[in-house]
Structure of Transcriptional coactivator p15 (PC4) C-terminal domain-containing protein:
Amino acid sequence: MPKNKKQRQASSSDSDDGPVDRNPPPEKKAKTATRTDDKEPTWVLQGKKLVKVREFKGKVYVDIREFYEKDGNLLPGKKGISLQPDQWRKLLSLGDEINETISSMC
């Protein structure tokens, strides 16, 4: 005589949808420039491309530059530009026009 087997009751969890992820991954935030804690205010654009506000020979500059690593330190590379505050403000004022031009070319 066969042993009594428990009958499976159909439930909502018996589906062919695959496993249920009870802990979905957190939503990724849009990548934005992040500010680092440094002597000079610094923002990371991407990888080793940084924006720094720095003082050089008594004048303030916005430095947009690619950095390289040497002996564990990030050092400024040749690829970049230093803008005086008035040049930086001018660049910002041209932002909408530049964005429109980029959009028309893409």
